[in-house]
UniProtKB/TrEMBL annotation:
Protein name: Cation transporter
Membrane topology: Multi-pass membrane protein
Residue span(s) of domain Cation efflux protein transmembrane: 23-72, 80-200
Key words, A-Z: Membrane, Transmembrane, Transmembrane helix
Location in or out of the cell: Membrane
Xref: Pfam families: Cation_efflux (PF01545)
Entry superkingdom: Bacteria
Key word Membrane present: yes
Gene3D superfamilies cross-referenced by the UniProt entry: Cation efflux protein transmembrane domain
Transmembrane annotation, as ranges: 23-50, 56-75, 82-101, 113-133, 153-170, 176-194
Species: Thauera mechernichensis
UniProt cross-references to InterPro entries, sorted A to Z: Cation_efflux_TM (IPR058533), Cation_efflux_TMD_sf (IPR027469)
Classification lineage: Bacteria, Pseudomonadati, Pseudomonadota, Betaproteobacteria, Rhodocyclales
Amino acid sequence: MAGCCSHSTCDAGAASPRFRQALWIALGVNAVMFVVEFVAGLAVGSVALWADALDFAGDAANYALSLMVLSWGLLWRARAALLKGVVMTLFGAAVVVRALWAFQHGLVPEPLTMGAVGVLALLANAGVALLLYRFRGGDANMRSVWLCSRNDAIGNLAVILAAAGVFGTGSGLPDLVVALVMSSLALWSGLDIIRHARRDMAHARQGQPAG
């Protein structure tokens, strides 16, 4: 999920060239799926797709930070994590506002496209999980990035179930419930990242290791 490997202290120093290549592929897949779900959510009026897009964006940032940590010092890693946390928090808040607006106006998303994109997202995460499966027994960072992709399938399934709920009831409530749950998790993760990043920045300025 969005909070996986979210601390600026994730250490990829022991990453093999194959693991780094896998991270680059995972980064590309998550970045592409963020764009796909964001555009699709806007097109069909699904807030749940927006919330799942936020999850893809968070994971893409996690993979990027895992790669950059190879050459960045603690202070710059913490600053990057702080920026990521702020962006995730703002985006999560925007999804909540969008969900409340959709509820107020009684909007009902188009369920077939919503479900199809949800299935595509599930396949994307399954592919990334399989790609990273061989590294699941490595260090904490290597294991965490695999667990991220595995756990993200829950969010994808939630979107698919929301689409089925919208299709079966003709109501936008299933979409809004899933969106609010997922965006709330993203908000919590973003704030948690900000707290850890600020703590690591303080440690870096004092010459202490990350806490």
